[in-house]
């Protein structure tokens, strides 16, 4: 296995394969800024494949705000979301919420870190965070959004860092 600064380097598909049905996954980002891009697409692709076999695959999605096409549109289009908070702006996801296919909590964005820290959303299984780099001592340099990412990094059971050097 290739390592970068002491951490395993895996493909988006390998990262997606580690996220099981029913997991709660927190994603970085605020609109398109700072949102993971490759891993959510890989999760959506995996969901479509699993659904094609007649099996269930949906995750609980938590973010610091709306995340745009890279997360909400991709995952909703693959029918891979069972629960979503705190805010979204995806037409596909909105339709699924209104039809009762996806549970949704609409709340003020500033409440998310406190809710996560106090366990109100349950266990945070994964954080998928976009960053420019991770240093050998574990510091994560975020890209264009900070928001709830530090809280997600602190409380997630497992962390996937999507490196975006641009």
Write a structural description.
Helices cover 31% and strands 23% of the residues. It is built from 6 helices and 9 strands. The chain is globular, with a radius of gyration of 15 Å. It starts with a strand and ends with a strand.
Helix/strand/pairing category:
alpha/beta
The level of helicity is 25-40%
Range of strand content: 15-25%
Q: What global shape is seen?
A: globular
**Which spans have pLDDT < 50 for at least 5 consecutive residues?**
none
Distance between the termini: 25 Å
Keywords:
single chain; 166 residues; alpha/beta; seven-stranded mixed beta sheet; two-stranded antiparallel ribbon; globular
Question: Would you summarize the structure shown here?
Answer:
The chain is of the alpha/beta class.
List the helices and strands and how they pair.
Elements: E1 3-4, E2 7-8, H1 12-17, E3 24-27, H2 38-52, E4 59-63, H3 69-77, E5 81-85, H4 91-98, E6 103-104, H5 112-117, E7 126-134, E8 140-142, H6 149-155, E9 158-163
Parallel strand pairs: 3-4, 3-7, 4-5, 5-6, 7-9
Antiparallel strand pairs: 1-2, 7-8
